[in-house]
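Let's practice the habit of predicting before peeking. Look at the sequence and jot down your guess about where helices and strands might fall. Then scroll down.
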Amino acid sequence: LSPLPNNVRHLMKDYWPGGVTIVYYCRINKVGPLVRANRNTLGIRMPDNEKILKIINEVRVPVLGPSANFHGQTTPFDQAELNKDFINNVDLVVKGICKIRQSSTVIDTTITPWKVLRQGKINVDVSKYQ
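Done guessing? Here is the structure:
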């Protein structure tokens, strides 16, 4: 990621780990076009899941964790709901339980004012960080 401004850092401090995804600029020379969908931004999140946090801490590098569905498909919250074609295209599926059963709130912090791209379980007053 590019260096983060203080207001984005405050948003992270207030909501991470948890169900808030932050869209911010990435270094396109370090993040491949497939990962960033040919854009200059990336959605980042620190999940509130003990098993996933342990993996992140142990590998000590960012972990690419795409949504567990293809674009436009319904978000699965149970392993039985996963698309088998999707499973065949990833390196690892971590078994677990999705406690919240709702998508993350996605906030684009690259525009002013910030914009909530998807409202999830967490309500964020983005004006507080502007």
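How did you do? The chain has a mean pLDDT of 90.
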